[in-house]
Each structure stands twice: as structure tokens, then as C-alpha cells.
Amino acid sequence: MIQKFLYLEWKAFIRSASFATNLALKILMGFVAVYFILIFLAVGIGVFYILKKENMDPVATVNKFMIYYVLMDLIIRLLLQKIPVLNIRPMLVFPIKKSTIVHFSLGKTILSFFNLVHGFFLIPFSVVLIIEGYDALSVVLWFTAVYSLLYINNFINIILSNKDNLFGIFLAIVAILGGLHYYDYFNITDYTAPFFDAIFNTYWAFAIPVMALVGLYVATFQYFKNNLYLDAGLSSKHDIAKTEDLTWLNQFGTIGTFLKNDIKLIKRNKRSKTTVGLSVMFLFYGLLFFTNSIEAYNNPVMHIFAGIFVSGGFLITFGQFVPSWDSAYYQLMMTQNIPYKGYLSSKWWLMVIATLVTTTIASFYLYFGVQVYLTIVVGAIYNIGINSHLVLLGGAYTKTPIDLSSGKGAFGDKKAFNVKTMLISIPQLGLPVLLYWLGSKYGNPTIGLSLVAAVGVIGFAFKDKAFSLIEKIYKAEKYATIAAYKQKG
Amino acid sequence: MIQVNNLSKTYNGTTVLKIDSLEIKKGESFGLVGNNGAGKTTFFSLLLDLIQPSTGNIVNHGVQVNTSESWKPFTASFLDESFLIGYLTPEEYFYFIGDLRGQNKADVDALLATHEEFFNGEILKNKKYLRDLSKGNQKKVGIIATLIGNPEVIILDEPFANLDPTTQFRLKKIIKDLADNPEITVLVSSHDLQHTVEVSDRIVAMHKGEVVKDIQTSPETLKELELFFAV
């Protein structure tokens, strides 16, 4: 039976949409994977010697911070690790024992990337410990116990799946603990480090997490076995819908009609909510540049780069997928009496409003000086004048249907990668950096900023021209886009 | 009036649709029947300019559909659930379509009120998004949405599929009422011969992309069609 399941899993893996990309991209992804594996390995091996050099006891130090490691792992899982329960549905009516189905589904998660990745850190670290003369049995028991804790996270995540707000709550807890620790009010590690030390120093303490893991597995197993019904554990959650009129948008005519729709789209779908969350992160991305914390970022040319990102987070993350946001009902849009101009204008206004709001919120960057905030404002002008048109233009060639109900893919869709979109995105970041560099080289930074802003204003002045051009391209791409959106997943 | 001229659609050398000439008169109630792959949905997609014809064209009330878009204001259609916006409630969807067709909220409400029976209390004020409705209820929403804004051409692909028996009866009545209006041309496709015969004055049967029968509905039509499809 398990063989049959494995066969299905293998098929699901090699036929998944993300795997069916072109060869060049596969190779690129392979390199990225190897790169990360090497980094983890380097950290796993290196951390021992680095700590030793800093005159810290490697084991004690790692044990001290282990609580944060474990908690962060849980948070990342809650955010990213998906539980593939729905795949079970077709199995229910076949002559397969329920316990087999549940064991397999739970067992499958054991091989998840989120579990295996820790091995790249923990295994080399443990090997180094043994080589350096620590008691091999202690190391193995410690390794077993820590991995058990990570697997406990795995099963906690399974039980807690489908509960949305937990991610935020856990993140807040860790942030508070970390903050209290940093400012020396309360140090959680004083209470947890002895536990991790005990795992290492005694031969019995490791049994606590192992027993907990076994207990949790049994509990999870029972829970799923008892809830293996379409209307219980396997039901998909239905939101309680509320009709919203948003009548205040009526004054904007056709654009208002679409804006209403876009606001609902963003509010009611997982994917779009993730995107908005991501654009908020862009808002703080500038801190890396302006706090001078990273040396490579600490030059004025990189600052204009940050200015574009800080004000344009939403524009970049949302805009690059216009019109894919409407992919699920694109056929409807194409048969309705819709002027393309109105449709595009509404997306444009949405991006402009978001950019203005972001720029206003970003006023906290005034803390780093007027020049810094000015850079962000200039970035916003360029975003509105040039980049808003460029993302719409790029969108005409982005033929990736979006599954609104899944948060996955918000971090960059592999299939959305194509040469045309790439070429269009070069001036998005490259041109302002170049202009600023020229301006500040042959004049001063203020001239550089003015140049970037001036180009933004010119772009704004040619809005109507740009729109007619974009409209034409959208019309030319219509049939190809409809055909592409029909291919789901 | 809808006029089809030398229309064909070819994918990689396989012709999936070939209609040399077909004329659908204004006010006609037109039924399209055929097996899977006969080309019914392809024909409707061409009529709605969702795919490009390989040769020929369709002229809808004087507008060639693949060169001009002015057929859109008077043509309404529901092919499948990709015509629904999943994250809207039914009300919001109706008002959205209303906005696009120049109907205000009161106009839409008036239309919805006349179809309360068709909705059977399962659609309006139900606190559900369209994506969470059952297939049948989604279909009800899509069908009624095509009636918003007094369109002159209404295109429904498989409207009877997934509907419960009572709703099928009610839908037949709606389509018959539309058919009685000389201003409205209704195009319906179906696998169900009996339903199609009941609601259409003219039936075209398709097979492998070609028109194989074109008959005015009479008491013998159903027999004739059954004989044709019983192989």
C-alpha cells in the first residue's frame, strides 16, 4: 500500500506546475539550493570554532539560544509549511484502512523540507563536537532531543493548521521575549538553557522531548483518524461573507466600479493579503540602507535604490501581477462592456494611492535626516511617473494565472519569469540609479535627486500616451492571455 | 441577427470547428446540441471573441466580433464558473455586472426581485461568497446575471447541468419567456435533448465540429434527434 502512495507522491512531485519550468531555470534553482546547503553546512561546521575563538563555550552558547531557534522554526512553519490534507480526499472511498491513510499523511510531513533543512546545521555541528572530543553518546542524545523538539513543532503546526492568527501571536511572543532579553529585563534563556544543558549532560533528559514527540504523534494520529470525514477534518473553511457597498467610490464612475472590486479582492483573498504583508516589509527594507548597518549598502547610489523600494513595495508586489489578479474570471471581463482604459486606470490609481500612503507612513525615516526622506519622496515620484506604467506594461506579458486562495507564490512566481518582463523591469530600478549617479557625479546629490524626480514628472505628463500604448498591447495579447489563464495550476 | 461566414477553428492541424454558413435570426430561440467535443463551446467562445477564428468570421447585429468590441453592450453570456468572481457575494456580483451595464442598484434589485423564486432562498443574503456556493447555486447566479441590463443576445452554455429538477423547470420558463420576446435572441447549448427541444424554436445538432442537423422544432423533433444520437 505504502508503495502505491509513494508512487502517487512521486507523480505529484514531478508533475507539479512549479517543476515544469524550463531547463535553464531548473539549473538556476539547483544552484540556489546548493548555495543554501553550503551556507548551512558552513554555519554548522563554523559555529563551533567561531564561538571557541570568542572564548565562549560552544555547547552552552548554542543551548542558550536554542529556545529562540526552536520558536523561530515554529513561526516559519506556521507561515509557510502547508499541510497537504486535501490530497487524502480521493483515497477515502478506496479499500484502504483509515489508519494507513493517516499514518502515511503524517509520515509524509517527516520528510518535509522544513524538517530536513535543520539537518544541514545540526549534523555537521554534532560531528564537529565528536571530533573535538565531546562524549559521543551525549552528542547523539542531544542531537536526538533537539531534532525531536523540531519534529514536535512539525506536529504542532499540523494540529494548529487552519488557524490564521497564530502566526502573529507567536511572532509577538518571540519579539517581546527577544526585546526583554535585549534590554535585560527578563531573560528567558535563564530558564530554558538548563533544560538544554541537561539534555547534553545527563543520559536521561533527552527522553523528555522524545516521549513528548511520541505522545504528540499519537494524539495527532487519533485526532485525524477521528476527523477523517469530509465535514470534519477535511472540510475547507468557509468565510462568513458580508456584502459591502463601498458607495463612496461611486463618484469615480467606471474606475470606482473596478476599485471597489480590487479592494474586495485584496481584503478577501489569502494571496493578495500575503502580498500586502510583503509590501509592508518593503517599507522597512530601507532601514538596512539608512541605518548604515550594512557596509555595501552605505553609499548614496544605493540609497535611491532603497527610496524606490520603500515607497514602491505595493506597486512592485501587486503591480507585477496585473492582470493576473483577475485571471480566474478573465473570460467574464473580456465579454463585458469594459473599456480597457477604465480597467487599467483603476489598477493605476490603486498603485498610486498605495504609493502615496506608503510614502506618508515612511515619514518616520525623517529620523535619519531630511535628505533620506527626500530620497524616498523622489523614489515615490519616480514610482508614480514611470514604474506604475512599466509594471502595467510588464503585466501584459505575464501570463501566470493566480490562485487567489493560496498564499504560496507571493514570494515570486517562478512561472512569471520571462525575458520580456525582465527587460521591462530593468528601467524600474536601473534608470533612477543611473540618473542619480550621473547627477551626483557631475553635480551634487541634490541635482541627482532632481533628475530622477524630473523623469518621474515627465512620465506622469505622458500618462495618456503611455496608457494608449499599454492598452494596445493588452488587446494584442488578449487571446494568448485567455488561453494561458485557462490552464490552472 | 447573427451571421456566421466560413468559420473554422484549427488546433495544430486538427479542425475542431467548421461552419460554412449559419444565420440566427433576431428573436430566435436557438438550441445547440451535440456530444462532447462536437464544438458547442468552441462556437460560443468564437462568438464571444474569446478565441480567434482560423478562418472566417461571425457578425453579431452588424458587428464583426473579432474586429470590433461594440457587440459587448448588447450581448450577455454565461459559459462556465470562470464567469463568476469568487470572492464576491452574489449581491456584489450582480451590482458589479449592473455597473458595467449601466444599471443602478435599484434596477438590479428590481430584476432580482422577479427571480426570487428561481433563487429558492439559497442565493441572496446568505453570507456566502460565490466561491463557497454549490455548483448549482453558482450556476443560478451566472444565469440571472446575464439578464441584467436588457441584453439583446443571451448565450448560455449548458445551463441545465448541475441544476436540481425544480430549478430546471423554472429555468425553462425563464428561457421560454425570453424566447417570446421578439427583441431577444437566446442561444442555449445542452446535452439534454428534451430540455433543448422544449425551450428552442430551432435546433442545430453538431458532430465533430460540423453542423449535421438544422431543424425547426416540431412535435417530431425530439424523436428525430433521439434517433440521430442513438448509435
Automatic annotation (TrEMBL), chain A:
Keywords (alphabetical) are: Membrane, Transmembrane, Transmembrane helix
Mind telling me which residue stretches traverse the membrane in this protein?
23-51, 66-88, 109-131, 137-159, 166-183, 203-224, 274-292, 304-327, 348-368, 374-397, 417-439, 445-462
Entry annotated with the keyword Nucleus = no
Where are the annotated coiled coils located?
none
Residues of the signal peptide: none
Q: Mind telling me which InterPro entries this protein's record contains?
A: DUF5687
**Transmembrane helix listed as a keyword:** yes
Q: What is this protein called?
A: Uncharacterized protein
Q: Which organism is it from?
A: Flavobacterium sandaracinum
Phylogenetic classification of the source organism? Bacteria, Pseudomonadati, Bacteroidota, Flavobacteriia, Flavobacteriales
From TrEMBL, chain B:
The record's listing under Pfam families reads:
ABC_tran
One GO molecular-function entry = ATP binding
The record's listing under InterPro entries reads: AAA+_ATPase, ABC_transporter-like_ATP-bd, ABC_transporter-like_CS, ABC_Transporter_VariousFunc, P-loop_NTPase
Presence of the UniProt keyword Kinase in the record: no
Q: Which domain of life is it from?
A: Bacteria
Domain annotation ABC transporter: ranges: 2-227
Q: Which UniProt keywords apply?
A: ATP-binding, Nucleotide-binding, Transport
Protein name listed in UniProt: ABC transporter ATP-binding protein
